[in-house]
Amino acid sequence: MEWLKRGIVWRPDSGHPLMSSHAIAPTPFLLNPSVIRVFVTVQDQQGRGRPTYFDVSAADPATVLGVAPGPLLDVGVPGAFDDNGLMALSVVRGASGQLMMYYVGFELCQQIRYRLFTGLAISDDNGTSFKRYSQAPILDRSDSELFFRGGAFALMEEGLFRLWYVAGSSWTEINGKSMPVYDLRYQESPDGIHWADQGRTVLRITDPDEHGFGRPWVTRLSNGQYRLFYSIRRCSYGAYRLGYAESSDGISWVRRDEDMGLDVSTTGFDSEAIMYSAVISAAGKTYCFYNGNNFGEDGVALAEKVD
Question: Does the model's pTM come out above 0.85?
């Protein structure tokens, strides 16, 4: 694939006390034929994330049409799995027309650095506001997925919810810092709420230089083929790079990272890292929203696929 980088399209308003920095994990959703709503997580001065959104033109996603007045959800109650922040990662329309937002909650720990589990919020007004389905995670810890069950991306196909997410139960030491280890798992659910304690591993870490996959993003072509966009943590880089894979069923993936065609720049906001790719097609074109250095410190970037 070949992409034309369009640069930063949105950055948070530093004047808002809960939206003072970063714009992490852009999550585009085609609200209607004219508008793409991009859900994104912003941070307060303590570094705690909360989801919000900005709207862009489907004809030209570099044109911002509007911005939410503030965060859509607050951090969880003290002691909850998301009491130190939450990050929206996937939005899908359910059978009844509600929008279902899957997010990861951050919980600081003493014996390990943190835990990551998946929560669910639901919108009855087409994405203007959301309410938590539960104070507890819908993907909670289990014996086989002990510390991490996050990065969830959902699709609804033929009345069935399909979920790709990252999970793991261990840490590794990299350059003197403890870092999480996880691979890509897969599950199915009839309602998008209730899930098994263990998913099927569909993309496993085999390269000793890799120690984790970032938020998966799955698209399906008109011919039925699936494309997987994800981020890769590598020891040698010390930061994320983008990966890409293909599949005929969304389960058995063939990695084609070299075909992604979108990498760091020589200078600028994405010169050190590139991550959290989210691909969407609108008005006959295909776009990729993504983050650059330091987890979107400079905002949300856009690239346009070149045919």
Answer: yes
